[in-house]
Each structure stands twice: as C-alpha cells, then as structure tokens.
Amino acid sequence: MAITLKINGQDRQVDAAEGTPLLWVLRDHLKMNGTRFGCGVAQCGACTVHVDGLPVRACITPHDALEGAEITTIEGKQGAVADAVRAAWVASDVPQCGYCQSGQIMAAVALLEENTDPSDEDIDTAMSGNICRCATYMSIRRAIKDAAQTL
Q1: In this structure, are 37 and 94 located in the same domain?
Q2: pLDDT for the residue numbered 151
Q3: Residue 36 zone, left/alpha/beta (φ > 0; ψ -120 to 50; rest)
Q4: Res 1: pLDDT
C-alpha cells in the first residue's frame, strides 16, 4: 500500500511492504544513500535521521509509522547549525573512513539545535549512541565545541 512521507520538505509516494524500516525505504526505494546501514539493531547510529526534529534510528523505524511526520536526512539537513557542524567537521578533519559520519553529523546537529553551549558531558551523552569505528571521538567533540562557538 502506497503512503506519502514528507522527506526533506517534499512529499514522496512510497510503496513498500508494511513495516519496512525507513532506512530501506530511503536507500532502496528513494535512492537516498546518505543515510547508512551500520548494524541494523539501532546500536551504532550510522542510520540516524531526524523525525520531527529528533534523532531517530532509521534501521528500526517502520516507514508506515511516519505518515504525517517531518523526516530529515543528511541530504536535506540545512540551516545555520548544520552549516556550522559541517564546517567544523572539515576544519577539524574529523572523518577517517567516513562511514559513520552522516549519523554523527545528524546527532551533533540535533544536540546543537537544542543546546548551543554543550559541556563535554552533554556531548558525550548526545553522541553516546553513535559508534565511530575509527575512534575519532576526540575530534568529534572538538568539532562540536567549535561549531557551538560559531553559532
């Protein structure tokens, strides 16, 4: 059964099996490959998107539960906070392999949209659900602090 999802500000018709995770709708049905598959059980954070402004794991979120919600992916995340985070990521040379970065950026943006002056503890708490296989956690923290200073 086809439903309409609002993704990155656009209504998109999706015809996927009931209960199909949002991640696979984004990647397979809509060819939006910025959101990554990492673990499939909401433990790594690579698949983080925003639903109504909150970070959500797309790998376990059924797409058909999101009709009427505002879904934002890494491809559609814009604004001063997103720009500050992306600039800080580049300036701090955060990515190593880059695989987790879309989820890391989405989590960092969600944090800074809520708290523009986070402590180390705030950052650690907000980012705790995002695993970086390359262990760039100190660079991630530094980039978030730098982004916060520019806001």
Answers
A1: no
A2: 95
A3: beta
A4: 77
Q: Could you tell me which residues come within 8 angstroms of residue 129 by beta carbon, excluding any fewer than 6 positions away?
A: 42, 43, 45, 48, 55, 57, 107
Residues in the chain: 151
Q: Which one-letter amino acid corresponds to residue 58?
A: A
- In the block, tokens 């209960």 appear at 19
pLDDT at res. 6: 98
Mutual orientation of helices 120-127 and 101-114 as an angle, nearest 10°? 130
Q: CA triplet 93, 116, 51: central angle to 5 degrees?
A: 85
Residues of the domain holding 113: 80-150
119 & 89 share domain: yes
Averages of pLDDT over runs of 10 residues in the chain (151 residues) are: 95 97 98 96 97 97 97 98 98 92 97 98 96 95 98 95
For residue 55, CA distances in Å to 6, 32, 36, 91, 110 come to: 16, 18, 14, 24, 6
Measured between alpha carbons, how far apart are the two ends of the chain, in Å?
A: 43
Residue 147 one-letter amino acid: A
